[in-house]
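HOLO CASE FILE
Compound: glutamine
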Amino acid sequence: MTIELNRLLFDACESVRGELATGKVASYIPALARIDANKFGAAIVTVDGATATFGDARETFSIQSISKVFALTQALNRIGDGLWQRVQHEPSGNAFNSIVQLELERGIPRNPFINAGALVVSDVLLQGQSPQSCVAALMDFLHLVADDGSIAIDEEVAQSELDTAHRNASLASFMKSFNNLEHEVSDVLQVYCRHCAIAMSCEQIARSLLFLANQGVDPLTGARIVSEQRARRINSIMMLCGHYDASGSFAFRVGLPGKSGVGGGIVVVVPGVATIAVWSPRLNASGNSHTGAAALEAIARASGWNIL
Ligand code: GLN
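Model generated. Tokens follow.
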């Protein structure tokens, strides 16, 4: 099984190697611009514990918005469905850092995977604790789901993002004016920027979200992370909102729930089967990894894995 899976992953990734020069590395966060743009890795972890890896699968990189899946899961575990009064679960059709919809919709973001929605999620996570202990609790949760206590925040990326978080500060202030933030904007930004700066490898990312492929239970440790219904809902939001204004075209091409980050990572869930993470830093115009999406399309085609 693992040999076949490694072969499938290798062939699919090699078939898109010619795409690697297309796209641009994110440079609006200065520390991200320093990454080697030719990195290319991928990992598949199955619910029965098989792992296949390709290229730079074991090298850590900035997970950026992939962290929004962990933050959402943690916020739902904290306050449950009350979250949906403060953030919707609709596709936005707009860029990840867009502010336009927020005015029309009176400070209630479209979904938890655009920046505005993730800032609300950070505000929820802050309830009753300092930014430091809030981030520490999120890291504990990540260590649990990844079954790996070594995962850490890249402090250089965190500082670089905080120093340049003008757009996110605007989104947060705007929502505060609509009373949709309880805490100080600076504290919310601390939590948000620090969770975006978590560094993980493809293999660690795929492993950590295996519970979403197995109805909320980590299939390798047996720990229940979320209820079955909640796992289904998180997957639904990944399907509809995981790639911002390119969510439709990603679903069209790959047919699986996924979440991207501007560090060039993308993770997808194959319910009942596996999770797959890919990494290639050059991004398309919507801020999603160009070659990562192409690799996932090739893997989905070769494996026949899809939810449709
Ligand atoms: N930390 C990034 C930001 O706030 C996350 C964006 C992303 O990965 N799409 O802009």
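CASE NOTES: The chain has two domains: 2-61+199-303, 65-196. Residues 131-146 form the longest helix (16 residues).
CLOSED: yes
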